[in-house]
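Slides due. Your pick:
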Amino acid sequence: MVYFSNSTEAAAYFAARGVTVPVYDLRNRASLPAGPSGDLVHGGFAQRAASYPDADDHFLAPPFCYRLAAGFFESLSANCKSTGVGRGSCTPVNASSGFLST
């Protein structure tokens, strides 16, 4: 979680090296992950922003940015789960629910 200008600069840096990094704008639903995860983050942020209209986004954003960051790392292994400690094997899991842990 970083200031938005840092996010766009970091994404440009990595893109120049062939690596795509997601950049999320909590006020822009289209920039968030598709499905219920993005809906929840966007709706929650909008509700919090409406409750604190004079607050800076950086005060409002942390719980939603943390959820997005956790979801990003969860998505790296969304198609696989460990079948046991030290076994080094994986079994496919249902990743259709997005990355929101329920």
In short: The CA atoms of residues 71 and 99 lie 5 Å apart.
